[in-house]
Amino acid sequence: MLMRYRPGTGLDARILTAAEMRSRLSGWEDLCRRSLEDSVYYTPRYAGALLDTTASQDHPRFVTVSEGERLVALLPVETARLPVPGLAAAGQAWMTDYTFSTLPLIDRNLASDAAGVLLEGLGQLSGGEWVFPAMTLDGPSARALMDAMELRGIPWAAAGDFTRATIARGPGFEEHLTERIG
User: How far is C-alpha 180 from the chain's CA centre?
Assistant: First the structure.
């Protein structure tokens, strides 16, 4: 389903530092509860813990979308020092060794509009190509972004396969031995 972006919805994109995001903790937590998809990696608790420990040398900026004071989308990003079209992307969704998904947090009630303004925020930060290193394309957050790009005529491409790990019920131990070992 193609989501319709409506210009003039009163949503604003802002670029914030990690310290500024921490000052908006209650709004950030509220967005996590309203998000299209759960994304533990961009929750204040998880991202904050990473910034306080293993990723303390990272300096992500947070592309945010707000409706007044209410946060409706968020994506932590890192920008390239020297983006070169065709050679080096403008930036990418923030990812660490402990981040396994780079899905943005998008309010489920304003998904199409918030995704569109989030793209505008990425463009404000740095024009050019943006990379989402680990994102499934079959979920509602990715769909909102893809629809917003399509409506704006922004080209996009998927590279590499990314699938979520799942646990499936299989044969018991004895059946496994018989099947695999003989």
Answer: 40
Render pLDDT for 77-92 as a digit per residue (tens, 0 to 9): 988 766 555 556 778 8
User: What is d(CA 47, CA 83) in angstroms, rounded to the nearest whole number?
Assistant: 25
Coil, helix or strand for 31? helix
On whether the CB atoms of residues 91 and 119 are closer than 8 A, the answer is no
Q: Which residues fall within 8 angstroms of residue 6, CB to CB, at 6 or more apart?
A: 112, 113
Q: How many beta carbons lie within 10 A of that of residue 181, not counting itself?
A: 6
- Of 134, 140, 141, 138, which is closest to residue 95 (Cα–Cα)? 134
For all residues of the chain together, what is the average pLDDT? 84
Answer yes or no: are the C-beta atoms of 68 and 110 closer than 8 Å: no
Residue type, 91: G
> Which amino acid type is present at position 28?
W
Element (H, E) at 49: helix 44-52
Contacting residues for 153 by C-beta, under 8 A, at least 6 apart:
none
Tokens of 125: 């930060």
Q: What is the pLDDT of residues 139-156, one digit of tens each?
A: 899 999 999 999 989 888
Alpha-carbon 23 to chain mean position? 20
pTM for the structure as a whole: 0.80
CA distance 9 to 54: 39
